[in-house]
Amino acid sequence: MSTSNSFDTRKLVMLALLTAIVFVLQMPAAMINFGAFNVTLVLMPIAIGAALIGVYAGAWLGLVFGFVVLMYGQAGLFMALNPAATIVIVLIKGMLAGLAAGAIYKSFAKTNKTLAAVFAAAICPIVNTGVFLIGFYLFFAPTFSEWGPDIGSATVTAFVVMSLFNFLFELTLNLVLSPVIVRLIQYRLEMKKSTA
What we know:
Shape: elongated
Strand content: under 5%
Radius of gyration: 18 Å
Structural class: mainly alpha
Number of helices: 7
CATH class: Mainly Alpha
């Protein structure tokens, strides 16, 4: 078997493994719950896959993330209000987060792989939360506001505050762990290549 085929096989195996990790980390038992929001660890393997395998792998892992969110009913409140918008937002935010992480990593990897991993780890939760908030304001905030000035504005504010808390937790976790994991995996792959 040629080296390029062997390398492609490794990428495929790594993508399968990261897909399974995304699936498991997004299961309800693995979630950290804060009110209506779930803090997830799943953005880490998305950023790692985007960095190690590529842009489309990041998009795939983000899509799997969105699928699992929908499968386990983790967007239930939003599904009750607007199912079509919820499905689109949930799938698109994960996919765009993975795409962005892969694109950022690819842009900076030639200069500095560790810095590229840090940027990829940062952009993943930024895009995920940003797309969620845009979707929330476009499709759900008007409904919450109609529920009454006191309840509506308090609920909209609470969702935004919880989203930002969620974002800061995920950003911090990604910034701390993803670059370290990416460097360790890259080191291991380089060691395997040199001994092959």
